[in-house]
Amino acid sequence: MTADPRLSMNQATIKYASLDEALQVTAQGGYRSIGLWREPVQAIGLDAAARRLADSGLRLSTYCRGGFFTMPEGAERRASIDDNRRGIDEAATLAAAGAPGSTAVFVLVAGGIPDGSNDLIGARARVADALGELAPHAAAAGVTLAIEPLHPMYGSDRAVVSTLKQALDLAAPFDPATVGVTVDTFHIWWDPEVLPQIARAGAEGRIATYQVCDWKTPLPADVLLGRHYMGDGVIDFATLTTAVEATGYDRDIEVEIFNQQIWDSPWPEVVARTAESFDSTVVPHLAASVRRRS
Amino acid sequence: MTADPRLSMNQATIKYASLDEALQVTAQGGYRSIGLWREPVQAIGLDAAARRLADSGLRLSTYCRGGFFTMPEGAERRASIDDNRRGIDEAATLAAAGAPGSTAVFVLVAGGIPDGSNDLIGARARVADALGELAPHAAAAGVTLAIEPLHPMYGSDRAVVSTLKQALDLAAPFDPATVGVTVDTFHIWWDPEVLPQIARAGAEGRIATYQVCDWKTPLPADVLLGRHYMGDGVIDFATLTTAVEATGYDRDIEVEIFNQQIWDSPWPEVVARTAESFDSTVVPHLAASVRRRS
Fold this sequence. Notes:
about 290 residues; alpha/beta
């Protein structure tokens, strides 16, 4: 089987696969890259996970995920910051173990408004504070923190960072090699400012990862799981992909789909269907000049 | 019973009440203002509705709602534009029949991406076109069209206008007396740009109506119905209300809640609970100077 050389399987798309299973089915699907999640890595231990990744021959595109640091100062916040430091170290180890062209990108989801609070502005300020704490550690480890704006429907319980502009404003004080952004079509497709902000992200060197999947309504009862194969919804991948490619973005492109039906499907089928979906919606809009990874 | 003199009951909060029932329970609750919806008005006819409103002694704050004009040119689009013209005329008639201080505001929801399309940008352009068609009619009727940005979770199926900035940009070519915006806390609370855009809306004279209700997660299975009494969720009504009042906004403030449990509650209870919720969350932040409506 073959897949576009820049396509990366985000492990969450085959959520119930162990790390070994995910690496195997992804490589067998002709992919050259994978985005890993912390839980399956921790299930077998970091050192073992790094060896398995190295053995797979796959690149690492991102490591998911950290963040969740909107709580006020205290033990819980300290535990979160410490856990993020460990995540940064894990990302560095895994990226070093992956095939050449791996990128040490640690995806960050900000976290929601703390329970019982309605202080959105304060929660956002604590995201900025956390980045300030983590950036030196990330810089030392050679890891890029990729702030991910999440769709505003998650604005209260998962991420007080809701737009690409906001993520870029948060990243602005830091070296782009240390703090960048995640551009995920599912979260930003609706934003009237998305095209100028993608251009800005590129100009500032901050697109750490480009992730794709589709949006369709009605949303499922669990709105976390409303993601779809590209082409099954309303997102204009031509316009968004062209905008990202126009910035010179030349990294792998991840497909990250949270969808119960897809999770319940056989993994080889998901891997194949993901590649087909990518071929028909994204690949036609990739810059011809950016084939170096093949 | 009493209620703050600027509080207006949006009829959708007591969705199953007929127009007569809604007018009666609202007046009995001590309110001085109501926002009406087209369906209950049409159920008894415009002339009868205008008489009943006049008899109630209530002001009209808004008339809900028009819009839904993102489809491409053709019979369906013509029918929508014509229906919006009728809605404008109805708003003018009802505002004239309401108590002094009534405002002729026709709320517009843009409409979603047409079925089978992924052309979000085209759909948005057709909203601008529709405003251009309707503005002369609204100006002649003395009605303000109030573009309502809807939360981005409705971006595909209900409204391709998702932010206050976008609504203001759409309104910009027109006289503020003819095209303004709806500032509804449920839709815009998450927006990192909300405070400067509220200030801008005020400076440009475009806040046609301020509507309040709360946001809470988890969202219900039908995400349209995830609205709550103020204080039951995460929205910071102090900050948002202060920002709106700082612009000099001096109109009525509507409470518009879509919530199955509230719809299924006795109307007098809903009317009372709405007033209490308004008193505790919004009233403390009203500008003391803006009491003229009392």
